[in-house]
Amino acid sequence: MTDKYIRPTKDESFMEIADAVSMRSTCLRRRYGAVIVSVDGRIVSTGYNGAPRCRANCTDIGVCLRDQLKIKPGTHYELCRAVHAEANAIINGDPLAIVGGTLYLCGTDAKTGKPTAQNSPCAMCQRLILNAQIARVVLRNPDGTLVSIDPKNWPDDTPESFAGKIIDD
């Protein structure tokens, strides 16, 4: 055997698990998977984007309202049936085991199968991550590289920070 086995880093391993979790997504646009790992390196929760319990999934309905209305990605989340992967992972996890942990978030475009380009979780998920006291968020870039973010460094969404950013669609 000439090829030497290269053991993936913990971040790479947990991101691969987040990618596998994303395959459970019921969204027709994007598949996201999240894995929360405790301070001591144990997986304590997973989540994927999909409709709330007791509600029909977009894959079951066969239509995405956001696509029908031609809504730009990253806007008007209130018109989406899905609960985000990060939110589902936080909801399903033991709050005490989540504190100080790391959230791995992996997204794939459902139509192309390519990794999504995302700089950060949405504003609502950022708030959930901060309240859950998650210490680090790891995202996958479209080129496969991983980016580690300290949630405390996200900009505060004060009214002043939104000045000039709100544009009618």
Percent strand: 15-25%
Shape: globular
* Biggest β-sheet description: 5 strands, mixed
Order of secondary-structure elements? HEEHHHHEHEEH
Question: Which structural class fits the helix and strand makeup?
Answer: alpha+beta
Strand order, main sheet: write it out.
2-1-3-4-5
Number of helices: 7
Cα Rg: 17 Å
**Helix-residue proportion:** 25-40%
Uncertain spans: none
> What is the terminal-to-terminal distance?
58 Å
For this structure, the quaternary state is single chain
β-strand number: 5
Instruction: Give the rounded overall mean pLDDT.
Output: 91
Tell me what you see in this structure.
By secondary structure, the chain is of the alpha+beta class. The chain is built from 7 helices and 5 strands, in the order αββααααβαββα. The protein has helices at residues 10-22, 58-61, 65-68, 85-92, 95-98, 123-131, 159-162, and strands at 30-37, 43-48, 102-109, 136-140, 146-149. It has a 5-stranded mixed sheet with strand order 2-1-3-4-5. Strand 4 and strand 5 form a beta hairpin. The mean pLDDT is 91.
